Amino acid sequence: MAKDYKEIFSKLIADMKLKKSLGIEKVQKAFKLAESLHAGQKRKSGEEYILHPVEVALTLEQHDFDSNVISAALLHDVVEDCGYTVEEIKHEFNSEVANIVDAVSAITAKSLKGEAAELLKQDEFAKFDLKEMSYQKLISLGKINKYAFYIKFADRLNNLRTISCFPRYKQVEKVRETLRWILPLLKLFRAYKFYNEIANECYCILNEDDLTKFNIIYDAYYSFNKRIYSEVKESLLLSLNDYLRKNKKPTENTQVKLRTCTKLEVVNMIEDAFDIKEVKNIKQSQFNKVPITKLYIILNNSIPTREAKNIVFNIIENDLQDVLKIIGYEKNTLFNFNYLVMQDRFRNKYQLKVFNLADYVTFRNGSTDGTDIDLVDEHASEIVTRYIKVKTRSGEEIFMPEGSTVLDFAFKIHKDFGFSVKYAFLNGSPSKSPIYTRLAEGDKINLEIAKTEDGLVKNIAELRWITYCKTDTAQKALIRHFEKLL
């Protein structure tokens, strides 16, 4: 059934009114402008294009961003796709909305002038370079207005969720771009919810075939426990409100949020707990052995988070012994936070965290406050000690250090290929990927090798190639080669 973008926008406005948000008229104005400018445009799926910015805007509204951010989300593609200008947005709205849209608008060949445009025309890798330049622009302008990053996060999440209409190689290219740029940014800003959802979409796209059995178990587990979850949630909320009223504490904004873990989170926890190497070996009986459901208890901002925790622990220990009990204490090492492990009477396990509302929003959305944005390059390029599995043209599987490039792969296959590789075709894509392209899990790589007129392998290595490779093997081979020439 086709989605109705007007219904989705009506929900967005209704949510804003319920929250008594400011700037509703501005958001409505942005919607009308975006609807007019995108009129007649279609997505690859055949849906009206305006559906995309409306869904991006709804995601940000549900994350409690303000009217400037929501308006910018509605307009985030009008400069790039409709010929509308940043100055026009500034005139119609304000400089903050305009700056956010400017930051997330991709650089195009038309937008470049002078020497940069001429260089781009000569570069056979122009499309790749434009993407790199667009992300560098986002990082540069994002230092001025951090909310541009969050529009990019919501935009990418929506793109990944609607990617199935694209060819497989396009999907993999989008995932690789996400792993290269978006995930390091998310981790840097501690945007916990966006990180989990985007990482999960990437994982599911790359492992689509292997997840067939797991998806059935995952859906069945959460569906079976729906009634139990409702009971746990209602019991907690009732006891919380009773306690707060009796002790003359504010009940406004008291919430109990129950969230299922993503498929990637569940896979990681079960694989770690049972030393499982492949997702297809996961069994349904293992699901309730690890805390794969999240319980977030949120109290009014007038109650400090430390006091909120004491209130909740008191209620669980004294009033809810038959519903929940505390059985442990664990740590999320990726985002460096602790949570209590709870168990219900059916032995389902939960991750429990308690906040006041302000601390919950920061935990969920993250923050760039106090963050050195310049560190993003370090995060984006660092090599960790994990390995990825890639494939040769013939389908042979090879393990490479995570962060390896096409050039590293060429040296891995044969030293002569390392000195003569021109570019590669990845995953059946007709696009030429430069030798400095980072490889992702599951990539199938077809190298294009330079040859002489006699058909012999031709050494075309340049000194700057040393900066393109990440493995010691490739770097040392290049260094030895150029030492002999100098």
Record keyword descriptors for this entry:
Beta Polymerase, domain 2; 5-stranded mixed β-sheet; 486 residues; Ubiquitin-like (UB roll); two-stranded antiparallel sheet; alpha+beta; 9 strands; single chain; Hypothetical protein af1432
Task: Report on the architecture of this protein.
It is a single chain. This protein is an alpha+beta fold and 486 residues long. It has three domains: 5-191, Orthogonal Bundle (Hypothetical protein af1432), CATH 1.10.3210.10; 212-365, Beta Polymerase, domain 2; 383-485, Ubiquitin-like (UB roll) (Roll). The chain has 21 helices and nine strands. The protein has helices at 5-18, 24-37, 51-62, 67-74, 78-82, 86-92, 95-104, 114-122, 126-142, 147-161, 168-188, 192-206, 212-224, 226-246, 263-274, 305-319, 357-365, 376-381, 406-413, 415-420, 472-485; strands at 255-260, 293-299, 324-332, 337-344, 349-356, 387-391, 397-401, 421-426, 445-449. A five-stranded mixed β-sheet has the order 1-2-5-4-3. Mean pLDDT is 88; it is low at 113-120, 122-126 and 377-385. Residues 45-169 form the HD/PDEase domain. Pfam families: HD_4, TGS. This is HD domain-containing protein.
